[in-house]
Q: What sequence folds into this?
């Protein structure tokens, strides 16, 4: 029922690989045949669960509280997508569009026995003559970075290369370059969108401006984005970035956060990106801390920042690398290991202004106890992303549907990962407890709960995701009524059509 969101994931250690299936050619013999008949033009692109490649084409990143599917539709072009949407909405069939497939919100569990619209055939990235980039909705961040970077350009992207780029943009799009260029969505020039009835519309600053506003922060509510054009920027430092990974024992937590808080209090360098992961040693189950420092500038300046931490680290690696290779060297044990599909991922998160050391000490000790009591959940992690703010704040508050331009300092994620489902209930309770703890104003530093929509769960007030201002509620609800009058895109943090539905 929606274009799925993507998000940046912080996951520690090796994850279990999902069973691999070999792709097979499409077959007419596996089309679903019931009282509803797919239009002839697209019938060969629709398959039921008896198709040999069905599992491969419908498996998503997380299996926690997942949607379920009894058909999959793989449109080959825009016309096919339009025909398919018109048929599905007319037949009253529930559907979910999949771009990257990394959306993990339990709100998706409401989508059952649905048709997955798999958008893998819209996997394209092209740099245009004016140095903008056209992005197909099926492309991953890794593909976007490769094409844009090889053209000597850059834009804000998430840290995880296997996340769908378009889905991440629809929720805002945080990333290491946000201090320089703003969010991924801030670079959006225009988008082509397929509406619920198959109508194709364009949204930009010149046409359908209301939809253009809503796509940037709440975009999954209004239709299926087919492709979009983004601004790009000249590569910083010739595309070369300094990256350093460091490890620390648990007793160094106070020192790690003291350094981080000093950098924040001094005013974080817009180009500096910090990531902190609290995880566990897979053998001893003792907590350990990882810190990644990325600086797209001179090596000496990057080293200057890293040395603030490395003076008391247990280990350190550092290198200059091309932006196109950064995802392979910056915290690879955390980021790359989070890419395999088909595992249980349950995450809660909170945005904070402050990183109060004493509260992270309490969380680490609680994490230690939890992992020792539930060793099969030792891949779970507390992950903190601290990126520059200047680029986000350079845009006015009403620039887009993204609501957090002055409340986006630190993303704190409690990511519970496990294969043993017997720990699911305890893992959920633990993460929820600590999300709520850090959401308290005296801990977070914000007056109200602030949630980055791409990292949201399903229990937060919608205002925490989309903003507390009444004018935002009015504008978003009006868009919902206009572009999704039947509520067919309600499966992922749905904007209510009526103001009474806001929480």
A:
């Amino acid at each position: 029922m929606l274009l799925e969101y993507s998000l940046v994931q912080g996951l520690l250690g090796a994850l279990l690989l999902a069973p691999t299936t070999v792709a097979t050619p499409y077959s007419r013999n596996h089309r679903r045949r019931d009282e509803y008949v797919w239009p002839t033009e697209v019938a060969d692109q629709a398959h039921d669960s008896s198709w040999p490649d069905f599992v491969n084409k419908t498996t998503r990143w997380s299996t926690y509280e997942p949607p379920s599917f009894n058909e999959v539709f793989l449109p080959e072009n825009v016309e096919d997508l339009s025909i398919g949407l018109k048929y599905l909405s007319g037949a009253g069939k529930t559907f979910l569009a999949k771009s990257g497939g990394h959306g993990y919100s339990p709100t998706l569990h409401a989508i059952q026995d649905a048709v997955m619209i798999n958008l893998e055939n819209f996997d394209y990235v092209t740099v245009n003559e004016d140095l903008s980039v056209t992005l197909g909705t099926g492309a991953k961040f890794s593909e976007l970075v490769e094409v844009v970077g090889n053209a000597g350009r850059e834009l804000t992207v998430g840290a995880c290369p296997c996340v769908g780029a378009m889905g991440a943009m629809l929720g805002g799009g945080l990333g290491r370059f946000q201090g320089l260029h703003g969010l991924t969505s801030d670079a959006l020039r225009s988008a082509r969108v397929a509406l619920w009835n198959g109508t194709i519309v364009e949204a930009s600053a010149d046409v359908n401006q209301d939809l253009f506003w809503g796509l940037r922060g709440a975009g999954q509510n209004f239709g299926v984005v087919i492709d979009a054009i983004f601004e790009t920027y000249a590569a910083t430092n010739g595309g070369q970035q300094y990256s350093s990974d460091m490890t620390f024992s648990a007793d160094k937590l106070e020192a790690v956060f003291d350094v981080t808080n000093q950098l924040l209090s001094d005013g974080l360098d817009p180009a500096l990106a910090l990531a902190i992961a609290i995880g566990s040693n897979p053998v001893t189950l003792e907590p350990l801390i990882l810190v990644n420092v990325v600086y797209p500038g001179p090596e000496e300046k990057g080293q200057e920042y890293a040395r603030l931490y490395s003076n008391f680290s247990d280990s350190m690696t550092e290198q200059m690398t091309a932006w196109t290779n950064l995802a392979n060297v910056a915290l690879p044990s955390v980021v790359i290991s989070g890419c395999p599909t088909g595992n249980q991922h349950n995450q809660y998160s909170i945005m904070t202004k402050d990183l109060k050391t004493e509260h992270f000490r309490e969380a680490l000790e609680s994490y230690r106890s939890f992992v020792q009591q539930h060793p099969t959940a030792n891949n779970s992690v507390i992950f903190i992303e601290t990126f520059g703010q200047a680029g986000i704040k350079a845009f006015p508050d009403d620039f887009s549907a993204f609501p957090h331009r002055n409340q986006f300092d630190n993303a704190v994620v409690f990511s519970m990962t496990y294969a043993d489902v017997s720990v699911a209930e305890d893992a959920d309770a633990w993460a929820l407890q600590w999300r709520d703890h850090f959401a308290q104003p005296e801990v977070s530093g914000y007056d109200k709960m602030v949630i980055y929509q791409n990292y949201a769960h399903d229990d937060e007030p919608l205002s925490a995701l989309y903003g507390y201002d009444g004018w935002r509620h009015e504008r978003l609800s009006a868009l919902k009524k206009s572009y999704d009058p039947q509520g067919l895109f309600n499966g992922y943090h749905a904007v209510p059509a009526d103001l009474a539905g806001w929480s």
